[in-house]
Amino acid sequence: MSRPNNHSPSRSNTLGSSPRQGRDSPGRGVTDHAHPCSSHGTWELRICFGLFLVLGLLLAGPVTAQDAPSERRQVELGLGLVAPQLHGGTELLRARELREQERSYFEGADGSRRSVGSYPRLFGFSVHLGFQHPVERVEGLTLGAAARTALTGSQPSGGGYSEGYFFNSVTLALAARHYPFRTPRLFLAAELGLGSVLTKNRYQDEAGVQGYFHQFGIGPSGSAGIGYSLRPRRDGAISLDI
């Protein structure tokens, strides 16, 4: 990777590919003051979440105390903590190696990179919104959809936000949940859909001008798991899923 030039505000690249060598590799960008976990597509994500919420509320009717979770329409809102693990992608792994070496993403004309201090582990939070609708012909089965986002980042001890690295993801998927037992507590869950990953490497050049390098990747996404429902209210109208 060579020194950025002054003609390109910033470059985007597909995840897993290296920036092109030459004087038009990742460009210099204007200084921005976005939230540390920000990325392109924020408004699009809010619109998607809003559509899912409206659709879920339209499908969610009144429930009774006798209804089991698999027999009622459900709207889900979830919060969580995330610590992503990066195992593939040429550029993802190269950027991780630079962080492990405590080096800036910017490379000078002589091929050197300045030390910016240690990077903590990538860490952040996740939010998901979804709905489930019971399948009358299959006992204990519900089908629906879910939208998930995870916003994570890491800022070095010596460089702070100006040398930070941010890894965000968005997933839209069809969802299924099955309660295999009569007791409406334990359930199996699965999702299959489309996921995207957005990364941002921030750096300062030799003149102290802020720059950044974006990458974007998209592809199929899936997950499966086991959960347990806690029901703080006797009527079962609200449950806390673990």
Tell me what you see in this structure.
The chain is mostly beta strands. Helices cover 12% and strands 39% of the residues. Strands 1, 2, 3, 4, 5, 6, 7 and 8 form an eight-stranded mixed beta sheet that branches. Strand 3 and strand 4 (141-154) form a beta hairpin. The protein is elongated. The model is unreliable at 1-42 and 56-66 (pLDDT under 50).
End-to-end gap: 44 Å
Low-confidence stretches: 1-42, 56-66
Number of helices: 2
Structural class: mainly beta
- Helix coverage percent: 10-25%
**Gyration radius, to the nearest Å?**
22 Å
Characterize the main sheet: 8 strands, mixed
Anisotropy-based shape:
elongated
Strand content: 35-45%
Q: How would you state the average pLDDT, rounded?
A: 76
String of helices and strands: EHEHEEEEEE
Write the topology of this structure.
Blueprint lengths: L11 E3 L27 H18 L14 E9 L7 H11 L22 E12 L6 E14 L10 E14 L7 E19 L5 E21 L9 E2 L1
Parallel strand pairs: 1-7
Antiparallel strand pairs: 2-3, 3-4, 4-5, 5-6, 6-7, 7-8
Any key phrases for this structure?
242 residues; mainly beta; eight-stranded mixed sheet; 2 helices
Could you write a compact summary of the structure shown?
The protein is mainly beta and 242 residues long.
